[in-house]
Design brief:
Strand order of the largest sheet of chain A: 4-1-5
Largest interface: A-B, 26 and 38 residues
Order of helices and strands of chain A: EEEEHE
Strand content of chain B: 25-35%
Strand content of chain A: 25-35%
Structural class of chain B: alpha/beta
Strand order of the largest sheet of chain B: 5-13-10-6-9
Number of strands of chain B: 13
Mean pLDDT of chain B: 89
Mean pLDDT of chain A: 80
Oligomer: heterodimer
Low-confidence stretches of chain A: 1-6
Number of strands of chain A: 5
Shape of chain A: globular
Low-confidence stretches of chain B: none
Shape of chain B: globular
Radius of gyration of chain A: 16 Å
Distance between the termini of chain A: 54 Å
Radius of gyration of chain B: 25 Å
């Protein structure tokens, strides 16, 4: 099996809220319930615990204002 | 009547008591009960309706402390998050052919009984772990290094990871102690590469004090439970938890079996159709009493 080289976090980070009681990744990311922590945005840089937590809702991405869908006056109401 | 006390049919293999419908049904239930693993990790609650409210305990606030001079007690609070869940029925069936019945094929029927009983138990195990793994409140850690690397600087350290999982539960719950470690078959295979684990496997003692070989020893005080349903896709996951308290199995209907003669189904060549049904759902109310250990196996570079 290929040996895993330590991942260096160089890319952009994602801000997430911890919903799990406690979370700890092998690359030193830790957080308790309710805390906001930063994780790598690139899935390849995320540890298995972080990936599983994101998938199952143990980590919830904090939406920045820029990410929210814009409300415009031309929006059609069906 | 021929005048004989017994007819030829009475002595024929089709009347073998081992394959009488009542006996086959009882065998399904017996085998099913003996195979339950994940379900036995949970408490039990019978239901009177087919929906249940999921109550997930939120954070514990407050703490035990010295009493103030006027004797007031510090308040501890346990908030809950409520939801609803439908309890769904599940089950399966198999058919015993007329030839199998007439020939008294006990071996073939036994295998079919086991197939349906094991599948029912495994289905319930999968449900239990699916709910535990995806419970939002459950603690989650990574193995410091994958367990499939035994030597070198990046060697795995399973006792350290298991101890950290125990500590996470203790910290979050302010003192609860985990008692069970659930491992997949592959995780156990990886553990056997460690000398300390292998030695213990060959030097374990049973309750009577006799030496038993190849029995999984308790690890750091945790009872080992090998259940592949914890990690069916071999993603590299183990669970440390406090059994019984982490959640309950809510049961609307326990396993029910039925035999239906083939001729009633319009199937002349079928002697009996045996069905097994049950209706229940796990409800993981205290996910903070569990901790998942992820990343047990080395990931291929993608």
């Amino acid at each position: 099996m290929a040996k895993k080289t330590p991942v260096k976090r160089t890319g952009p980070m994602l801000e997430v809220v911890v919903k799990a009681g406690y979370i700890e990744s092998r690359d030193g990311i830790k957080g308790k319930k309710g805390e906001t922590i930063q994780i790598p945005e690139n899935p390849k840089e995320q540890s298995p615990a972080i990936r599983q937590a994101l998938k199952s809702g143990k980590l919830k991405v904090v939406q920045a204002a820029a990410d929210l869908p814009p409300t415009t006056g031309t929006q059609q109401i069906e | 009547m021929t005048g004989a006390a017994y007819t030829e049919k009475d002595f024929s293999l089709s009347n073998n008591p081992d394959i009488a419908p009542e006996v086959v049904e009882a065998a399904i239930k017996l085998q099913y009960k003996a195979r339950l693993k994940g379900r036995n990790l949970l408490g039990y609650k019978p239901l009177t309706v087919s929906t249940t409210s999921t109550i997930e305990e939120d954070e514990t606030t407050g703490a035990i402390n010295w009493l103030s001079e006027n004797g007031s007690l510090p308040k501890m609070d346990f908030s809950f998050v409520k939801g609803t869940k439908r309890v769904r029925p599940y089950g399966g069936y198999f058919e015993v052919s007329e030839e199998q019945q007439e020939d008294g094929a006990t071996d073939e029927i036994r295998v079919m009984v086991n197939n349906v009983a094991y599948a029912m138990a495994y289905f319930e195990d999968l449900l239990v772990y699916e709910d535990i793994i995806n419970a939002t409140g459950i603690n989650t850690i990574d193995a410091t290094n994958p367990w499939d690397v035994v030597t070198g600087a990046t060697a795995g350290d399973p006792p350290d990871d298991i101890q950290r999982a125990k500590a996470a539960i203790r910290q979050v719950t302010k003192g609860w102690e985990a008692d069970t470690l659930v491992l997949s078959e592959l995780a156990v295979a990886k553990l056997t590469k460690y000398d300390w684990f292998r030695n213990r496997c060959y030097n374990a003692f049973d309750a009577q004090g006799y030496l038993v070989t190849a029995r999984l020893p308790p690890i750091l005080g945790l009872n080992p439970l090998v259940d592949d349903a914890i990690d069916p896709l071999n993603e590299g996951r183990a669970l440390v938890c406090k059994a019984i308290d982490i959640g309950v199995w809510e049961e609307r209907k326990p396993i029910a079996t039925r035999n239906i003669p083939g001729y009633l189904l319009g199937k002349d060549n079928v002697a009996f159709k045996y069905t097994a049904k049950a209706k229940g759902e796990p409800n993981i109310k205290q996910p903070k009493l569990g901790c998942l250990i992820n990343g047990l196996f080395t990931e291929e570079e993608g």
